[in-house]
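REVIEWER CHECKLIST
Item 1: Sequence provided? yes
Item 2: Single chain? yes
Item 3: Sequence as submitted:
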Amino acid sequence: MQKKSYFGVTITSAILLFAIILYPLLPNISYSQQQQQQQQLFPFLPPTNTIKDQINNDIQNESIIHASGNNSSSSSSSTHKVVILDFYDNDIGQFTNAKPILDKYGFKGTFFIVCKWSTSHNPVRMNWQEISQLYREGHDIESHTMTHKPLDGLSTSALDYEVGQSKQCIHDHLGVYPTVLSPPHSRGSNNATVINTIAKYYDLSIGGFVNDVMFLHCYGWKQQLHKQQYLNQRDCRPFSDNGILNYASRYDIKENAGAQGHSNDTMIFNRFANLVNRVGVLNSNNNSDSAMPLNSILILGYHNIDNNQIASKDTIDIALFDKEMKYLHDNGVRVITMSDLAYDENSKYLYVKNG
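Item 4: Structure as written out by the authors:
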């Protein structure tokens, strides 16, 4: 009996020792699972273990305002909250599902069009008749190249065709020249040849993704502070004084793709709302006078708006898109288009026209 008692004590001691060792590791295990879930929800973002290094003071810590309720208690005025809604790839759900919601709340979007896809007679893509209607109703139509090929692997002539001919293509169909390009898959923003080709034809270009807002002076993200070549960037010129491509510029405008997802709508919406409120906080903190120029905006990228989310991870369901647009409307957020952005040749900053 005595031996059996010793055995029980030994087992109990082992369990206690194991618990003592394991307990401090539990938060890390839980955090790792959360990271995996977030990376699945937001496939365009960098791995979540680097997110704190990629945003200027983590959104969860700095946005201050939560998604629940209205913003009446916020110190940031709604006039400081400015958002751009970008839509890509001619997806038909943008016309059949997103447009009625935009109409309901009085918003206009920027639609980046792949020219050849508009004449492909593919039922999942918008055609020129639908794109023309968007343009007539006041939406912004910009270029997403001719055929959606990544720009950083093309010959000189092929690159010029994708970038330059797409501008002429849109003019041929709508009678207006686009002023903004978005390279497919954000490829080419770190390639000097691509940037110089874009600069021949366009005033601005969407570049890479960030899990944050877009700073109109093109500096302020943490990832700039961790790389020597970006430390001295203080404006939106594409190249630094020593000829190196800057982290962000008029031809590498940063967009946030984290507002779309395919499963956890609550997490997606809360993240969306935090981003919207963050831009208000940043602008109000630096501009006590609402007449002062804005220093940041939030640019949100969308692809298809549809309830069939199995086929594509970059699809957002219709109810969630409506909820996001309602949030913008009810909180007095100013929704503009990419054509409302411009580049000041004197300050070398971006600015919002009439902003």
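Item 5: Key structural point noted by reviewer: The radius of gyration is 23 Å.
Item 6: Recommendation: ____
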